[in-house]
């Protein structure tokens, strides 16, 4: 576990701030693109887009190459109900990609954060980066956020249980918000999908969401604390992406969305709200690299998006803060699609 900072004193109103560009952590994956990931020849090969296909190797791009995030400056007038001051947020998959940027949004809105990730080292770096960024942006802050990092495999109930317990120990025995961004996608034709890969995909995307939600809910129910959970689904839970075949991923994300609705009803009497965000195509470090290398795929995806562009991770910042905060007090069981209009066409 890494403890990035401990709470110091209460914050006073921030005097000034500059524009925000968070350097994302540099993540080095196995290197070299030995064959194109996508060739617009009408033929899709098994595992063509798979992140876990061992024959596909590529650089995870450096931090400066990423889209910036520009959180709302806190000196500007905004609804008090959007503030997350005094809240503790757990973000699974928060070490990188969408989870990292959403953690940033929650911290910028006043929350302390616990980053939970399979890649513990990356989680530690991300926690440090977020804290350093916060300090740089808020030199007059009297109170620094506490941002902790935790190694966990969300597909394992024992790992999740001990991680939540570790987080409670380090965050004064309370958790108010859960965001489940740990997940992955792979592409295989249905008839070629290896069974063990399919189980892993469901294990992380569906079981992982469920295990984390249940552990956090137990805590909230026991302590009689209300809370908010935001599951990260995908527009793939409602539509079928083309051209890449990914039936199990699509079904898994549909399950995540319906899990949110079902748990919302079950836990409403306890004051726990559960909602889902379904992003469309988002430009994370990895998808940007894939698209840069495959302009045909980029053109194909973009042509299907009414807003005419792939989303940036920062497009999720407002959505996650809204659903995590009191601003959405009467919203539960909802699916908020953040997809540039993809799913309405
Ligand atoms: N990027 C997109 O275009 C997009 C679109 C729609 C939905 N999503 C969903 O958003 C979520 C985040 O995607 P991303 O693009 O940021 O991916 P990413 O690969 O950049 O980040 C995912 C993070 O989850 C972690 N993780 C993976 N397996 C884990 C496990 N078993 N336990 C704990 N942590 C684990 C990874 O280490 C990583 O840090 C996923 O659920 C994905 O399906 C992504």
UniProtKB/TrEMBL annotation:
Q: Does the keyword RNA-binding apply?
A: no
The alphabetical list of record keywords is:
NADP, Oxidoreductase
For this protein, the record's PROSITE patterns field holds: ADH_SHORT (PS00061)
UniProt xrefs under InterPro entries: NAD(P)-bd_dom_sf, Sc_DH/Rdtase_CS, SDR_fam
User: What domain of life does the native source organism fall in?
Assistant: Eukaryota
- The question of whether Oxidoreductase is a record keyword is answered with yes
Q: Which Gene Ontology terms describe the biological processes this protein takes part in?
A: mannitol metabolic process
SUPFAM superfamilies according to UniProt? NAD(P)-binding Rossmann-fold domains (SSF51735)
A Pfam cross-reference name: adh_short_C2
GO MF term (any one)? oxidoreductase activity, acting on NAD(P)H, oxygen as acceptor
Q: Which family does it belong to?
A: Belongs to the short-chain dehydrogenases/reductases (SDR) family.
List the protein's name. Answer: Uncharacterized protein
